[in-house]
Design a protein that fits this description.
The complex is a heterodimer of chains A (462) and B (258). Chain A is built from 21 helices and two strands. Chain A has a two-stranded antiparallel ribbon. By secondary structure, chain A is mainly α. In chain B, the strands form two sheets. Chain B has a six-stranded mixed sheet, with helices on both faces. Chain B has a three-stranded antiparallel sheet with strand order 2-1-4, covered by helices on one side. The chains are: A mainly alpha (462), B alpha/beta (258).
């Protein structure tokens, strides 16, 4: 239990912010915090939007490679600037150098891909690690340099959010506006090249130029994001919010929008948390917030979330179980004419032998049907269909038989398999389909008996 | 030949190479207007490569391709393309209608949105292939055949005069096959020319009135009745016996031997 005490001790030692600090933070009263929060929020928005297109264009790893490849550019620019005795902290020059070496890395990737038979992931691995390794070696020179540490160049590796100044925040916001405008203007064009670049080319769209533009925007976001979250983690802002957004939607526009919002929220709350707990590294915190968004989306997402999938499956399972049980009741007490003999009870064992199912399945089904008022217990404690239950059972048996006949006569399904296939599909037959089935079957088998249609007649759900 | 001033597709001495290794040799071909042309040949014969080279998706080593007597870049809007279904990611967040509307993008032009006018055009194309009920489905929720029909509809909205279809019949259900055949017949009736990469030798005589038999070079070309013969099939498919047997069986059935 010792470790627990140590852990609790260290947590309680952390300075928990008081209420006033929290209020000051979220009302953006503090100038410095305001600058930082606005800056990283804008960055999150821009990267979420452009990251969506980038992932759909299958370029996620390429941008990671670009991010790592910026380090030598930053170091070389710093060394040149200090040799020329210009202000070596000049942010614009450093970013220019970063962007330039990022672009060189793309060219190297293209070159290796064209002239070797290496696979894409191997090429990216080679370029990423060579450029980053080169950057780290250069970093050694930078730190030996008299002005090295003063420039805070090593801040670019893991990010130094707190160092964001007003003009940096301005640049991040201009960048976000640029990304929004470009994405809106070229939404259709980006959608086309991301989905089917060959078709786009046959339609006369300049696929290569659009690709270069898209990657150019990614490079800009990456380079501008370096200061806030750092080389190692900037890729996560481009990938995680778009991946999370995919769980909420099936439409590209909303995908882009949601990714932007999630990215902005990650930036905002990540930076806010860092402002409240002083020793937390900001870049990593932002990434962790976005990762949390991702996991929440993965579980709760309304389109592809795990919970939604589970619930949908369970609903279908229940529906199938209910309908099978009603059919079992019907078939247990069916007279020679194919009609249901009303008010006859059934014991659990009678139902159990009707098909291969488990006792607890049947019991669960009976519970559901009882709750819906379709099954009740008679004086002898036997289960019996209510009037409503009888109507539903008649309809379900009718649909089942119509479907079965249809499959045997029209769908070339082996007779032995019919029941199994029917079971899966018949439970979701809609009104329209049932009407068509009736028509087809009535034409082919005018004398065949299917239960007379009960009132109200309709297919599908109970 | 009617319309002999406007030959929809003329290929002269076309050679295509991958890493300096030629995959298509000296292709010479002229298609008669208003015909359904089947391109058949074994795997690796360069059928898809031929279409891609014609559409300038891959570079040509040499040769000339003219469509309606002009370079492709001048007549793009008159040429439609249906790529192989496997060439795209069907998990992409778009609906069937969105995909079909992509065929209109060229007419819509830069920066403009896809307005309801264009969505209506896309809906009409979906109706032609019997897919209107599925317009708003996300494309991964469609079956393989339905996806193929969406691709076909995307090409149809363009109202081109010359079409290239890369294996539209591969792995589709009977309903889709029927829908595609109906469309092909409609296109032919409207005087359009359609090239179809095809695998199923059993249906060649039924579907196509003109054939291009390919195995890295043109083995035979001409009206199906004349060129779909045993000696040409042997030359095209070489030692690939199972396919050959299948083809010979098909010919026996259709009674086109001799």
């Amino acid at each position: 239990m010792n470790w627990l005490a140590v852990l609790l001790g260290s947590v309680s030692h952390a300075n928990w912010p008081d209420e006033e600090t929290v209020i000051r933070l979220f009302t953006l009263q503090d100038y410095n915090t305001r600058v930082v929060l606005l800056g990283v929020t804008a960055l999150g928005l821009a990267s979420g939007i452009i990251g969506s297109f980038m992932i759909l264009r299958k370029r996620a790893l390429l941008s990671d490679s670009i991010a790592h490849a910026t380090l030598p550019g930053i170091c070389i620019t710093f060394l040149i600037l200090s040799a020329m005795d210009i202000n070596s902290k000049n942010f614009f020059f450093l970013l220019f150098g970063a962007g330039l070496s990022g672009i060189i890395s793309i060219l190297c990737v293209q070159f290796l891909r064209a002239y070797t038979k290496l696979k894409e992931d191997a090429v990216l691995g080679i370029i990423l690690s060579s450029f980053f390794g080169f950057g780290v070696v250069l970093m050694g020179f930078v730190q030996q340099h008299p002005k090295g540490n003063a420039a805070g160049i090593d801040g670019y590796i893991f990010g130094k959010t707190a160092s964001i100044q007003a003009h940096d925040a301005q640049m991040l916001m201009i960048n976000a506006i640029l990304i929004c405008i470009m994405s809106l203007l070229l939404f259709k064009e980006f959608r086309l090249i991301c989905f089917d670049s060959c078709f786009a080319a046959t339609q006369g769209w300049p696929v290569l130029k659009l690709d270069i533009l898209l990657m150019g925007l990614v490079v800009i976001v990456t380079v501008i994001g370096l200061q806030a979250v750092g080389i190692v983690l900037v890729i996560s802002l481009l990938i995680i919010p778009p991946a999370a957004a995919r769980f909420w939607t099936d439409r590209l526009f909303y995908q882009v929008l949601i990714a932007g919002v999630l990215g902005a929220a990650s930036g905002f709350f990540g930076a806010a948390i860092t402002a409240l707990f002083e020793r937390l590294p900001a870049g990593a915190t932002i990434v962790l917030v976005s990762a949390t968004c991702f996991f929440v989306s993965m579980v709760l997402g309304s389109k592809r979330g795990m919970l939604m999938k589970f619930l949908k499956k369970r609903e279908l399972d229940h529906q199938v179980l209910e309908q099978n049980l009603l059919r079992a009741f019907y078939e247990l007490h069916e007279d020679d004419e194919g009609n249901l003999i009303p008010n006859k009870g059934a014991r659990l064992n009678d139902l159990l032998i009707m098909r291969s199912w488990l006792e607890n399945e049947v019991q669960a089904g009976i519970r559901i049907l009882t709750r819906k008022g379709l099954v009740t217990k008679d004086a002898n404690h036997n289960f019996v269909l209510t009037e409503l239950g009888g109507i539903h059972a008649t309809r379900i048996v009718r649909n089942h038989r119509l479907w079965e006949i249809y499959l045997i006569t029209h769908a070339d399904v082996a007779t032995g398999r019919v029941d199994r296939v029917t079971d899966k599909i018949e439970h979701i037959l809609g009104d329209k389909l049932v009407a068509r089935l009736e028509h087809i079957v009535a034409e082919d088998y005018p004398h065949l008996h299917v239960p007379a249609s009960p009132h109200p007649i309709s297919g599908g759900k109970i | 030949m009617k319309n002999n001033t406007i030959i929809p597709l003329a290929i002269r001495d076309l050679t295509v190479a991958y890493h300096r290794k030629p995959v298509l040799w000296d292709i010479d071909f002229e298609a008669p207007a208003g015909s359904l042309v089947g391109i058949i040949g074994p795997n690796g014969a360069g059928k898809s490569t031929l279409i891609k080279a014609i559409l300038e998706l891959i570079p040509r080593a040499s040769g000339e391709v003219l469509m309606f007597g002009k370079n492709y870049s001048l007549v793009r809007q008159r040429v439609g393309y249906v790529p192989q279904r496997e060439s795209v990611d069907w998990d992409f967040p778009v609906s069937a209608l969105d995909v079909v509307a992509m065929g209109c993008y060229g007419q819509i032009g830069w920066f403009r949105r896809v307005t309801s006018k264009w969505r209506k055009v896309a809906r009409e194309a979906l109706e032609r292939v019997g897919m209107l009920d599925y317009a708003d489905r996300q494309i991964s929720q469609l079956s393989g055949g339905q996806q193929q029909r969406v691709f076909l509809a995307r090409a149809l909205v363009q109202d081109a005069d010359l079409y290239f279809m890369d294996e539209p019949f591969a792995g589709v259900d009977a309903a889709t096959e029927k829908a595609i055949i109906t469309i092909l017949q409609e296109l032919k009736k409207a005087g359009k020319t359609v090239f179809v990469v095809h695998h199923d030798l059993q249906t060649v005589t039924e579907y196509f009135d003109y054939l291009l038999m390919l195995n890295m070079r043109v083995v035979a070309e001409g009206p199906t009745k004349e060129v779909f013969r045993e000696e040409n099939l042997v030359k095209t498919y070489g030692g690939r016996l199972t396919l050959l047997d299948e083809a010979l069986e098909a010919m026996r059935k259709r009674g086109t031997m001799g």
